[in-house]
Amino acid sequence: MGLIVQKFGGSSVANAERVMNVARIVTDTYKKGNDVIVVVSAQGDTTDDLIEKANEINPNAAKREMDQLLTAGEQISISLLAMAIEKLGFPVISLLGWQAGFNTNSIYTAARIKNIRPNRLQAEIAKHNIVVVAGFQGINRYDDLTTLGRGGSDTSAVAIAAALKADKCQIFTDVEGVYTADPRKVENAKKLKEITYDEMLELATLGAQVLNNRSVEMAKKYGVELEVLSSLNPVPGTIVKEVAKMEKMLIRGVTKDKDVALVSILNLQDTPGIAFKIFSKLSSKNINVDIILQSIGRDGTKDLVFTVSKDNGPVAVELLEDMLDNCTIKCNTEVAKVSIVGAGMESHPGTASKMFEALYESNINIQMISTSEIKISVVIDAEAADRAVSAVHKAFIPNEL
Amino acid sequence: MGLIVQKFGGSSVANAERVMNVARIVTDTYKKGNDVIVVVSAQGDTTDDLIEKANEINPNAAKREMDQLLTAGEQISISLLAMAIEKLGFPVISLLGWQAGFNTNSIYTAARIKNIRPNRLQAEIAKHNIVVVAGFQGINRYDDLTTLGRGGSDTSAVAIAAALKADKCQIFTDVEGVYTADPRKVENAKKLKEITYDEMLELATLGAQVLNNRSVEMAKKYGVELEVLSSLNPVPGTIVKEVAKMEKMLIRGVTKDKDVALVSILNLQDTPGIAFKIFSKLSSKNINVDIILQSIGRDGTKDLVFTVSKDNGPVAVELLEDMLDNCTIKCNTEVAKVSIVGAGMESHPGTASKMFEALYESNINIQMISTSEIKISVVIDAEAADRAVSAVHKAFIPNEL
Question: What is the Cα–Cα distance from B98 to B68, expressed in whole angstroms?
Fold first, then answer.
């Protein structure tokens, strides 16, 4: 009993049958005496279809109009879900982002939530309505519609849970929870019972597509307890919270990220401040650099290697060619980043060597290494990525938990 | 030069190509030095598709949710049209009904406009933006979305023209204007250069589907000059205004309405107030009665015959069977109403007999007759409707104007 926020992604409401399925999950929760706020994304491919319609007319359309267009997607899904809940005989009302009080800044297509005016949400809850809220969208100070960017519905759900001090925020997806590795690819991938916010953040950043990163950051900031679970299979999922039980494993998961390009600058003149100039230039063009490796200087030159996202690779090369002379600039997009994540690893000095050993035994060459308190990432050939994940997973995750 | 409101229906913006076509018409008007506000409906079959989605889930869904759903349709078309206008290099902004200030009452799916708060529209016009406004929709006092009912976009356009005192309101459709009869069915149907509001109202009520009735009423009330013209063929259309030149014809048009059911009550006990009781009962169930015919009483009984819309026929019969005894109640849905409309007819006494003669010569039996100052309607067998329209049209409309 309490206030529960439930979020369902686009595939969970893709058609009439699935909408009815979600309605049943929601009303089951309500029947147990809970107040329920449901956040939904646009149905299935709606957002992509709308983007395609826009591109057909004007691929460089103003982002304000893009948001005006895209917000129609959740408008459709919330009203349909409300109709389904009504059909099951429960009191319900749907609210658009602005009706639910989502105030954002004015960065169209990637807006940030400034605050939630909770009056309407509270009033509907007080009337014992199940409230269906459009995720992903809000309104700015000019009364124009905005969207939060891909995965924004997770953030919408967590923001409501934080604003209304909900007892729990459940994120329903098409998987049963957070796994130690992609269960479709890795034999013996385990579902985690619990995971910390920080671990979840690393997993999300490193390519596990279960939860949107900003939503985890926000959950951590406001102490919102998250649960990731399946909308199709009603079993307990994974709880994300501040302190998680470690279970019997050293790490929480192994991830693979293929959206990586490796940019190399060879024989770079080693003048003072050159690295600063290079990275501030990239940053000014909104290119995020992930791992950086710098060789020890030799003959007044050095080598600088770094990773960026795949589509930023060629852009970075072009920028660098304009600003640097007398050096060789290359870009390799046939690489992948494999990472292990776990809050306990910093107190276990053997973790890194265990990972490297597993890769060595599988004959996989490591091109770059990056470590943080709770993760270790390596850059390897893209073709070896799946093998690497399996090998590392096998080395760390016991078969029986 | 001035402020022009242009309205485009769903078929005019059905796909990317047509949206670009509309963008060209709008920007051509803007280039001539006009301020332009464009009102659009949802694309092609969008509204029907959304209704189907709703019916699949809950055919009896709350009307508030239906409006929440349907308003997504124009949201898509306005943003796409704005993108198309932007592509042609013109400053533009799209506004939803509520952003454009449309305040309505709370009768969901059939709301009435209470007023338009013109601030935002005026501000955008002052910035020299072309403003694309979602037709058909508004917002009520609870901040919930409403729709104006089918054909509501015409009303939206006229309401804006009235509120901002526009110089003209152009209604673009897929025909070139208002015709003396349906040009696809009647040879020699003529396009009218001008028509009065009252004549247009009768034509609209009687089945000419060019303009929504409420929009004509509003245009008359606020003196908004309307022009009906084609979005595909750039020729002058039909002007609708207070006083119209009569051209060389006695009537403005011949219409056919097949949405008619003829309900007969035979041998009705002729007690005082019985007709009142019958029609107030029908009215209380929102059944509009059109033509009424009452026979002269005989043996203490009389016959009462009236027309209602086709789907109301069986409903009316059921109501009457519950309240009346000892009489025969029948419903005939195989009828049609054929009408002639023209402000000049009251001063030409031969108009009715000329119409009846044309029908007689075509061997068409008249079941009921109804007249007003500017129209004459007859109810006939449905199968004869097209023949009747042709015969009457030929009798009244000269081949060469």
Answer: 12
Q: State the Cα–Cα distance between residues A340 and A307, nearest whole angstrom.
A: 18
Q: What is the pLDDT of residue B276?
A: 84
Element (H, E) at B255: strand B253-269
Greatest CA span in chain B, whole angstroms?
Answer: 79
Name the residue among A61, A72, A86 with its Cβ closest to that of B83: A61
Whether A62 and B82 lie within 8 Å, measured CB to CB: yes
In this prediction, residue A252 carries a pLDDT of: 85
Within 13 A of A83's CA, how many CA atoms are on the CB side? 31
pLDDT at A248: 60
Check if the beta carbon of residue B226 is closer than 8 Å to that of residue B178: no
Is the dihedral angle over the CA atoms A332, A336, A341, A345 positive or is it negative?
Answer: negative
**What pairs with residue A238 in β-bridges?**
A228
10 Å Cβ neighbour count for B303? 17
H helix or E strand, kind and range, residue B168: strand B168-173
The Cα of B65 is separated from the nearest Cα of chain A by a number of Å equal to 5
CA distance A195 to B19: 50
What does the mean pLDDT of chain B come to? Answer: 90
Query: Packing angle between helix A213-222 and helix A152-163, nearest 10 degrees?
Result: 10
pLDDT band at residue A400 under the 50/70/90 scheme: low
What pLDDT shows up at residue B84?
Answer: 98
Are A38 and A131 spatial neighbours (Cβ–Cβ below 8 Å)?
yes
pTM score over 0.90: no
Test A76 with B69 for CB contact under 8 angstroms: yes
Query: Tokens 């060629």 appear where?
Result: A314
Q: A-contacting residues of B 119-148, CB under 8 Å?
A: 120, 143-145
**Strand, coil or helix: B131:** strand
Residue A375's beta-bridge partner residues? Answer: A341, A372
**Over the stretch A140-179, which tens digit does the pLDDT of each residue have?**
999 999 999 877 999 999 999 999 999 999 999 888 888 8
| A7-33 confidence digits (pLDDT tens) | 999 999 999 999 999 999 999 999 999
